[in-house]
Amino acid sequence: MANTKEVRKQIASIKSTQKITSAMEMVAASKMKKTQDTMLEGRPYSLKIKDVISHIALASSEYPHPFYEERTPKKACFIVVSSDKGLCGGLNINLFKQVIARSAELNEQEIESCFALIGTKASAFFKSVGGKVVAVAEKLGDKPNPDDLIGLTKVVLDMHKNGDIDQAYLCSNGFVNTMTQQPNVEQLIPLAPEEHDESSPTQWDYIYEPEAKELLDGLLTRYIESLVYQAVIENNACEQAAKMIAMKNATDNAGDLIKELELLYNNVRQAAITQELSEIVGGASAV
Amino acid sequence: MSTIKINIVSSSEEIYSGEATMVYATGTLGELGIAPGHTPLLTGLAAGPVRVQNGSEEEAFFCSGGFLEVQPDLVTVLSDTAERADSLDESEAIKAKEIAEQELANKDATLDYAKASAQLAEAVARLKTIQKLRKKQ
Predict the structure, then answer these.
(1) What distance in Å separates residue A159's CA from the closest CA in chain B?
(2) Pair (B20, B70) in one structural domain
(3) Strand B48-54 versus strand B57-63 pairing type
(4) Is the N or the C terminus of chain A less surrounded, counting Cβ atoms within 10 Å?
(5) What DSSP assignment string belongs to B77-131?
(6) Does CATH number 2.60.40.10 belong to domain A4-26+245-277?
(7) Percentage above 70 pLDDT, chain A
(8) Do residue B78 and residue B96 come from a single domain?
(9) In sequence order, what DSSP letters do the residues of A51-101 get, joined into one string?
(10) Band of the pLDDT at A238, cuts 50, 70, 90?
(11) Do residues A247 and A17 touch, judged by C-beta distance below 8 A?
(12) Which residues of A touch B13 (CB under 8 A)?
């Protein structure tokens, strides 16, 4: 039977853990608000650029951009967005599972995979699992700067330009609500062509100033960059939400454990008292 | 009077959304004015002001580069950074210009020449926007 001192020690240690997890929960809750705001601020730009891109897809352009070109796929690159810090439940691992599954699927079709990783967790994971890593961007902080991602995006786009890869996928967590985050694997390149609307006139094109090639290159690159940036800030919001939930669960579990231990403690204490009493009574009757 | 819808967005926020009778912008190949019913146009934007005219009212924004898309009934400005011209601080702009000029002046091996001249162009464009606004007031 455990003695009272041991149980008391255990209770104290769990209580201090509980204090830490509940503090982390509160930190995550306040950060979640901020990251959600950042996510919403970025949305108008990504929506508008999407509109423009869909207009461009409708125009019968004089210059078909390579991002629309369907090549026979031999190699694919996954851009994997993860968090920098842990303690956020199954957020990262659920995403990695999907990425690995998709990569295995492609492997069956004899398409090789390589990875461009955002976030410390992804780079640690793919280091242990193995896999060809072409670019890494880490420690972007709570308010990532679009400039920090340009390098990584450029590596992937350059590989596409040089024919080193034929497809690119963007893998990140989508923010559904505070309780739910949805891991997504989305195809970036080739860009899916928009469906033609029958009612709109089919033959028209923009006036390009200056050259169509230069403009479309710039605009589509910016589009991909904005998609990656949006994925990163959305993933950040997911991370804080998941962390808040994970820490709330940890705090609740600690509470349950403490309750159980307190029951045990009282039992042990009561048993000790009963034993002492019976000893005293036994001693008294012996005299 | 017919109007055209205009949206100005930068990567971190929505700057302006509304109707306009005329939009003026600084394209990479020169200034352009867009009236409702303009033919589809796609152009790069240079650092400079974007002015939105609606009847007698006019609003100006500073844009340091980006893209402009025109559809007959819609203008979209995808700006790298856009700010309301009112919030431009002239002294800040002058300071930025001075720094850029200084950096250009002591052009040594370690200096990124292209970056400095881009900074200078941006500072000059900011100043131009402010001065244009001042004249009108």
Answers:
(1) 24
(2) yes
(3) antiparallel
(4) C
(5) EEESSEEEGGG--HHHHHHHHHHHHHHHHT--TTS-HHHHHHHHHHHHHHHHHHH
(6) no
(7) 95
(8) no
(9) HHHHHHHHS--SS--GGG--PPPSEEEEEEE--SS--STTHHHHHHHHHHH
(10) very high
(11) no
(12) 41, 44-45
Interface of A with B in 136-175 (CB under 8 A): 146
Q: What average pLDDT score do residues B66-70 get?
A: 90
**Domain ranges (residues) in chain A:** 4-26+245-277, 37-242
Class of the CATH domain delimited by A37-242: alpha beta
Q: Give the C-alpha distances (Å, rounded to integers) separating A195 from A59, A63, A219, A223, B40.
A: 12, 19, 20, 19, 20
Is this complex scored with an ipTM above 0.90?
A: no
Q: What CA–CA distance (Å, rounded) separates A62 from B43?
A: 15
Do B41 and B8 belong together in one domain?
A: yes
Which domain CATH number covers B39?
2.60.15.10
How many Å lie between the alpha carbon of B72 and the closest alpha carbon of chain A?
Answer: 11
Mean pLDDT score across all residues of chain A: 88
Put simply, the chain A residues between 50 and 89 with a CB less than 8 A from any chain B CB are: 51-52, 55-56, 59
Of A245, A247, A248, A232, which is closest to residue A35 (Cα–Cα)?
A232
Alpha-carbon span B102 to B104, nearest angstrom:
5
- B48 and B98 housed in the same domain: no
